[in-house]
Description:
Strand 2 (84-94) and strand 3 (97-106) form a beta hairpin. The chain has 21 helices and 17 strands. The protein is α/β, with parallel strands linked by helices. The strands form 2 sheets. It has a 9-stranded mixed β-sheet, with helices on both faces. Strands 10-11-12-14-13-15-16-17 form an 8-stranded mixed β-sheet.
Amino acid sequence: MKAFEPYLDGCCNVQLQLYEHLRDRNLNAVWAHIRAKEAITTADEVRDRARRVRQTFLDSLGGIPQTEEPLNPKSSGVVRRDGYAIEKIIYESQPKVYVTSLLYVPGKLAKEAPAVLFLCGHAREAKAYPEYQRVCHDLAINGFVVLAIDPTGQGERVTHYDPSTGAMPIPWGTTEHSYQGLQCVLTGTNIARYFLFDAMRGLDYLASRTEVDPSRLGATGNSGGGTQTTLLCMAGDERVKAAVPCTYVTSREHYYVTGQAQDAEQLQFAMTRDGINFDDMFLPFAPRPLLIGAVASDFFTPEGTVITHERLRAFYRILGREDHVDCVFAPGTHSYCRELREAAVNWFRSHLMGAEPDFKTAPDDSIPTSPDSELWCTSKGHVLTELPGALTPFHLNLAIIPERQAPPDAATLRNSVIDTLAIRERIESPERLYPRTIKTQTVSGVLAHSVFFISERNVMVAGCLLHRPDVSPSEAIIYLAPGGTNALGLHIESAQELLDAGKALFVFDVRGTGAVASVTINPHEQGLPGLHYHTENRLAYDAYCIGESLLGMRVYDVLRAAQYLRETPPFKRLGIRACGLQPALWAYLAAALDTSLETVDIENLIPSFEAIARTELYNMSFTPASMLHGVLERFDLPDLMLLFAGREVHVREEPVAWRP
């Protein structure tokens, strides 16, 4: 039996509340920054904003990796085509970080040529994807040297792949990016830093080639490649003289309300709070030539693309180069289609060659492409198989895990936890609870009082207070477990000894769970790994983008449950019990902060956040809903035992290794 009928027995539409709460906070931040930008009227103000955007972006990444090590490029073969050759190149963006790439070299170059870095979207074949081969072909026959690189997690750089069986426990691309990206979040970085640095080192390689004029470099890509092109622009890399990001650029306010998720490399910590909209991403690049490529029926909302272009035109106008920014729309759906590649070639012809933008591309089926295997730089199409010492973002992240320091005094540690959870303002200025007991029923011989109250403005949480009908308990235990109040019978059975001992059990639903679970807000809820685009993970990243965490919000909800039990009715003694990876985290962190929880009984707690960061194949129950940006710079779970002094604490840890 459930404690509540839908909508908290008709009292509140809780299915939408968490989505709307996070949506409103994100959009309010967006609109506040839009209004502030409308006051910009001088070139100095534009340049000042560009500097702030760039620094904020770099800080959110944890900086850009640095190395003075050589690229060590190696060629593994050449594919000859009419008018150009394709060299198979592997270079090291960092020591043992092997980037597989294809270098398109036009034939009969009379002098140093301009070059374009091609950045691949989320296609399994990456640089060998036929759509991308066609773009590189058109650039090459126009006299551009082109370097197309495999991003991490795609092409020959998939991490968890066995070429002999095809087995891939962590799927390629967006899932792998999210999986490793979550580990980066714990160290206060972002997986985008590795995409960006691979691209920057690709520019280094192009500049090193004798065929290339290093003063005339461009960059382009679509979808995830449009993201990477945008990252280069936001980083302000001065070597990129012209850019064509395609099928990625929209506006934050338009994209946000679609309910779609984005990939880990596309979202940086506090980017919405700090005012980085899509037009801001290109300010560090302005006023260099920028062409935004879009398609009319993209899931990256075209309305947002149009308004971002308009905002950029205003900034470019202030900088005196309105002619250097443009936008082109092609028919069709999400792809680097024929019309876009023609527009991109002509943009580069104009701005890197000084040539007329009069190129006409050929139909797709008349442009030569090669099968994936023909363009492999490695013998089996997998870097880690051929180069077993190769490093991935997982390994690079290991190197920046800070050395654990002895925890500070209890007061300092407690403040650090509060600030890392981003709940100080909530704790210091709480809303009144106004608890409602809306019904009492008998469940499995136990009285069940269904209660809900406000945790913070517009966010209701719910619980069911259970006790034997023949007792008036003086002690209450907050009970957190998967299913929450939707699984009362199971929880009563699991905690029968507490009820038999005359205690009350408060089965509690933090926001977005149990009776207050969120409505599904995107179509990817089923059939994809748990770390991908599920609703809860989308909501977790919504919190991340305003500089907070869903974990912190839920810990605060548990603190509010304790407050409710202290006040209404007034129990003399409180405790907490939890099972399941996420409920264990909520309970442990809340109990560390609230000393009124005298007994603490937790199972399935991860040993530490560091254990997640150090385990290459970690438990997929640890999702973005459990992440805390930069937590390893501040504290870890074992440190918090200092805050439990004098209390009865039982914790049973859960191994973090992934189990199929």
